[in-house]
Amino acid sequence: MGRGLYRAADAEADLNTNLAEVAKRAPKSVICLVSALAYHGLIDQLPRKVWFAIGAKDWEPTIAYPPVRVVRFREPYFSDGVEAHQIGGTPVRIYSVSKSIADAFRNPKLVDRSVAIEALKAALDQRKATPAVLMQAAADFGAAKIMRPYLEALTSNG
Fold first, then answer.
1. H or E segment at 147?
2. Is 53 helix (H, G, I), strand (E, B) or coil?
3. How many CB atoms lie within 10 A of CB 44?
4. How far apart are CA 7 and CA 90, in angstroms?
5. Residue-level pLDDT at 63
6. Residue 111 vs residues 27, 36, 101: alpha-carbon distances, Å
7. CA 4 from centroid of its chain's CA atoms
8. I need a labelling partner for 113 at 20 to 30 A (CA). Which of 18, 43, 98, 121 fits?
């Protein structure tokens, strides 16, 4: 697959293989924003690039393939809300559902608001997160003011 990266010839193609490749090439990184939302099944689109976060002062790895988009998060936004997943036997660090949605609302220059709303609606419909957990994540990660009206609209019974 690349220098130092191998895959069995008969291995099945997986949509998330690119995430594992990035995790191998940038082990301290965390899959974030659009890539995390797509991994969790919260949006319909497939990202053209693998989005990953690094710390504010971390060295930015040079990755020729797959195409990547690097985002710098400062603490505590970088370290909190990280989950460990296995993709093709490779450990991959990915932000949780609630953290990914909060980040999407918190970064309107990076993620279109319609994508953030789609992810919020999907998380509620698929019961991947409760309104309380989503609101707590929004409060913890600086998106409460922005996300509250959308969450209230999607959870109102009227």
1. helix 144-155
2. strand
3. 9
4. 11
5. 85
6. 24, 12, 10
7. 25
8. 18
Give me the sign of the Cα torsion angle 65, 80, 117, 92.
Answer: positive
Residue 115 main-chain phi, psi, to 5 deg: -70, -40
Residue identified by tokens 């193609």 is 13
d(CA 107, CA 13) in angstroms, rounded, equals 32
Distance CA 157, CA 71 (A): 37
Q: How is domain 17-155 classified at the CATH fold level?
A: Beta Polymerase; domain 2 (3.30.460)
Model confidence band, residue 13 (pLDDT cutoffs 50, 70, 90)? very low
Question: Distance (Å, rounded) from C-alpha 145 to C-alpha 46?
Answer: 28
- Comparing C-alpha atoms, which of 138, 53, 142, 128 is closest to residue 97? 128
Span 63-83, pLDDT tens digits: 888 889 999 999 988 999 999
State which H helix or E strand residue 106 sits in.
helix 97-106
